[in-house]
Amino acid sequence: MRYLIDTDIWSYYRQRRFGVAARIDALPADDLAISRVSVAELQVWARGADTGTRRGTVDALSRRCRLLEVSKGVWSLYPRAQFELKRIGRTVGMADVLIGCCAALHGLTVVSNNRKHFEPVCEVLAIPLENWAEPPRAASP
After folding, report:
1. What is the value of pTM for the model shown?
2. CA 86, CA 81: separation in Å to the nearest integer?
3. CA–CA gap between residue 119 and residue 76 (Å, rounded)
4. Are 38 and 5 in contact (CB under 8 A)?
């Protein structure tokens, strides 16, 4: 595994937006992971539908990669991460901190378009963050 894909990136994958689908489809499934937290967020979205189409989409996305549970190890990282976020004056919801802790525990890069939440989370957990919904930044000369 190399990447923990956040909920918003899976939404772009499903919608075929920003070239995210091509990027994900080009990677072996073994390189991709999703947190149980993201699956739960997607299941909430799917419950808003009148048909099973959305639920089928969530099931298909979950099979596209490795599912990471919110384990004891993740919960052991959570208090330190929330404390450090508070220390630097940042408030981030439990779901995004848990997703970051999942990535940290497994040594993965978080992939999200939600920089507002994940930049500080990844900073305090010392893990990389990538945004596949924006063009890559040009290298400095």
Report:
1. 0.88
2. 9
3. 21
4. yes
42 occurs within a structural domain = yes
From first to last of the 141 residues of the chain, give the pLDDT tens digit: 899 999 999 888 888 888 998 999 999 999 999 999 998 888 888 777 656 666 667 777 777 899 999 999 999 999 999 999 999 999 999 999 999 999 999 999 999 999 999 999 999 999 999 999 986 665 555
Could you give the number of structural domains in the chain? 1
Q: How far apart are CA 4 and CA 10, in angstroms?
A: 11
* Domain assignment of residue 135, yes or no: no
How far is Cα 24 from Cα 31, in angstroms, rounded to an integer? 9
- Three-state SS for 51? coil
